[in-house]
Amino acid sequence: MTKDTKINVPIMADLAAKGENPEYLYWVGCAGAFDDRYQKVARAFSKILNHLGVSYAVLGKEESCTGDAAKRAGNEMLFQMQAMQNIETLNAYEVKKIICTCPHCYNTLKNEYPDLGGNYEVINYTVFLNEMIQSGKLKLENNPFKGETITYHDPCYLGRGNKIYEAPRNVVKAVFGEVKEMKRSRSFGLCCGAGGAQMFKEAEKGEKEVNIERTEEIIERKVDKVASACPFCMTMLTDGIKLKNKENELQNLDVAEIIERALEL
Q1: Where is the Cysteine-rich domain positioned along the sequence (predicted)?
Q2: Which residues, 6 or more positions from 34, have their beta carbon under 8 angstroms from its beta carbon?
Q3: Domain coordinates of the chain in residue numbers?
Q4: Among candidates 52, 80, 96, 7, which has minimal Cα distance to 259?
Q5: CA dist list (Å): 179 to 176, 197, 225, 226
Q6: What are the E-state strand segments in the chain?
């Protein structure tokens, strides 16, 4: 729940105790659970799901890290231990469909869990939101960003990793009308600098931090907002904006937060 407003988020164990099996499991992810900034994104997406009347639940305290960071850092044994624990939990609840707000969780659950016996329909939230908009189930009649411009940063694990380029752009365009593309975008997009477990280690020697270079490219577009769709990207871009002293001119918003504001939730 938020500090000012209670959000009714169903817990899988509670529904199971009543003999109910929701259509979707919303996989919150470590960032959505523990990072103050990305908790706002998890809340925003939960509000949207409630607004749509979607049958869903979260694992709550039963959710553990997917093991993505451990695998990228080379600890395959730890990854498999985490994955098998999660698979046991998911299968116990007979989960069929999983929605993820984190591309790292999405990639791991979709592409790596099947090798260990975890077979699910894994959906990225930008694809889900785009489908809701295109089908008319999600009606966006308000634009709280009138007169403002926006660009979009492609997360590596969403774009190059899973070829999801258009869905997040379509969602942003549904509110802003236009996305001012950066020179390096889509399959040529520049990493934020945090993928592959780089988020959790000290920077290596070099002339410039990756997130600073990416932030400079955003600033070059002279936009008011930059949309992102990944907790790692949000952290790195927000830090870059702060280091460039552009906090009063440029804001990083997640795709879900844009929809939340447009719906006035």
Answers
A1: 24-110, 150-237
A2: none
A3: 12-130, 139-263
A4: 52
A5: 7, 29, 10, 9
A6: 24-27, 56-57, 97-100, 121-124, 150-152, 225-228, 251-254
- In terms of CATH architecture, what is 12-130? 3-Layer(aba) Sandwich (3.40)
Distance separating alpha carbons of residues 145 and 136, to the nearest angstrom: 21
Please state whether beta strands 24-27 and 97-100 pair in parallel, antiparallel, or not at all (unpaired). Answer: parallel
pLDDT digits (tens, 9 = 90+) for 180-239: 999 999 999 999 876 665 655 566 677 788 889 999 999 999 999 999 999 999 999 999
Whole-number pLDDT of residue 3: 45
What letter does residue 25 receive in the DSSP assignment? Answer: E
Q: What is the DSSP letter of 189?
A: P
Structure-block tokens of residue 9: 């988020």
Give the Cα separation of 76 and 69 in Å (integer).
10
Ranges of the chain with pLDDT below 50: 1-4
